[in-house]
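Try this one yourself first.
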């Protein structure tokens, strides 16, 4: 029996397979429109630059074979169904000359007149268009910044939103250029969407977890950040921020054909405290996945998941528990080509770590929520902030000595 306001098969599969839909919650998504130290953020406005043994995806073996997909009666993507994401080129990035080099940061500089923004997140650089995409949380819209343009021609809206509309958070670009978006929507099932025709044609890929032998079925609580691998695997975190029933604290994988797997479930405060996984980023060669979280006293933590050739988790390693906590929060992650990790924290700015979890210094950007590398040489670190965390409402850029990953 299909629940009210659900689709018979996910909107993505409806597009691909031509299946019909039941009552939906409004218009269909397809038709809707420095080393070892700290540097301080300037505000001059200058324009410088599971329970891993839990669920396994449909068509895979494992102790729990149930997989969540968009729609209550979702289509089994096995049996010749084409991938929803065309793979790209496998990264061959190696630290090379940057191996063992500690990151050094210039002075953070605010970009344009972005104090009008609040709760920024979802930073992702589009190398093909040389533009930065980001989410403005206060009115839930996706905007972009392009270096070298005057303010009057910048900060245009790519996907309009509205207060309590889509509650967009994390963004990433797939290997085929599609925009993936985490949406903790208030009046509709929380979802992860994908837009292939420009940035403003989102189609639901997944909107709930169908459950397993060890973890009950549930809607997502608040899909937070998302990271797309070269082969079409997509990973995202689900946090308890927008509570809907039992808060979820899980790490998920969507395989190239759309099947959903719960990779890790944090069931209690004994596992992790109020966050579970938040930020998420792939290593330069896409052979590993990093997440950040914080434990009960509030100390930041970094976890590495080594991935196999198919994109499943082969090994989980807790890299570090930062002894300099407690901090106010942890949030987005990004990584440079030397595999140094940049963790955004509400009370500690952007904290930098080596690939083994060694603390390398911090960048003083109050209320940092997310980060991404960009620019023509990929040596500009863009940092988003949140006024709700530290009273700041700026988008910053920081010159770095090591190029990064978008």
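Now uncover the answer:
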């Amino acid at each position: 029996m299909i629940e009210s306001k659900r689709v018979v098969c996910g909107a993505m599969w409806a597009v691909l397979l031509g299946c019909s839909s039941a009552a939906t919650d409004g218009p269909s998504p397809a038709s809707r429109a420095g080393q070892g130290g700290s540097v301080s953020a300037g505000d001059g406005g200058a324009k410088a630059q599971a329970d891993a043994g839990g669920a396994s995806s449909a068509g895979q073996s494992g102790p729990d074979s149930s997989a969540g997909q968009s729609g209550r009666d979702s289509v089994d993507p096995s049996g010749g169904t084409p991938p929803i994401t065309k793979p790209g080129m496998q990264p061959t990035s190696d630290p090379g000359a940057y191996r063992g080099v500690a990151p050094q940061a210039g002075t953070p500089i605010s970009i344009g007149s972005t104090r009008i923004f609040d709760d920024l997140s979802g930073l992702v650089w589009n190398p093909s268009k040389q533009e930065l995409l980001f989410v403005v949380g206060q009115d839930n819209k996706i905007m972009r910044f392009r270096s070298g343009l005057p303010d009057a021609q910048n900060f245009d809206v790519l996907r309009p939103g509205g207060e309590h509309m889509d509650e967009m958070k994390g963004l990433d670009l797939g290997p085929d250029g599609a925009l993936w978006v985490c949406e903790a929507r208030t009046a509709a099932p929380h979802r992860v969407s994908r837009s292939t025709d420009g940035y403003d044609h989102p189609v639901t890929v997944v909107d709930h977890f169908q459950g397993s032998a060890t973890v009950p079925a549930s809607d997502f609580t608040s899909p937070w950040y998302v990271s797309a691998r070269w082969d079409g695997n997509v990973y995202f975190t689900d946090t308890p921020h927008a509570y809907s029933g039992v808060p979820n604290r899980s790490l998920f994988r969507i395989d190239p054909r759309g099947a959903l797997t719960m990779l890790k479930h944090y069931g209690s405060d004994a596992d992790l405290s109020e966050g579970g996984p938040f930020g998420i980023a792939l290593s330069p060669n896409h052979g590993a996945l990093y997440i950040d979280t914080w434990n009960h006293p509030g100390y930041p933590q970094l976890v590495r998941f080594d991935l196999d050739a198919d994109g499943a988790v082969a090994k989980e390693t807790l890299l570090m528990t930062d002894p300099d906590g407690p901090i106010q929060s942890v949030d987005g992650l990004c990584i440079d080509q030397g595999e140094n990790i940049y963790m955004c924290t509400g009370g500690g700015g952007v904290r930098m770590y080596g690939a083994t979890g060694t603390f390398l210094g911090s960048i003083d950007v109050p209320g940092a929520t997310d980060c991404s590398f960009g620019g023509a040489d990929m040596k500009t670190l863009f940092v988003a902030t949140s006024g709700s965390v530290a009273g700041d409402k700026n988008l910053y850029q920081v010159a770095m000595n090591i190029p990064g990953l978008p």
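Discussion: Residues 1-79, 270-274 have pLDDT under 50 and may be disordered. The longest helix spans residues 11-17.
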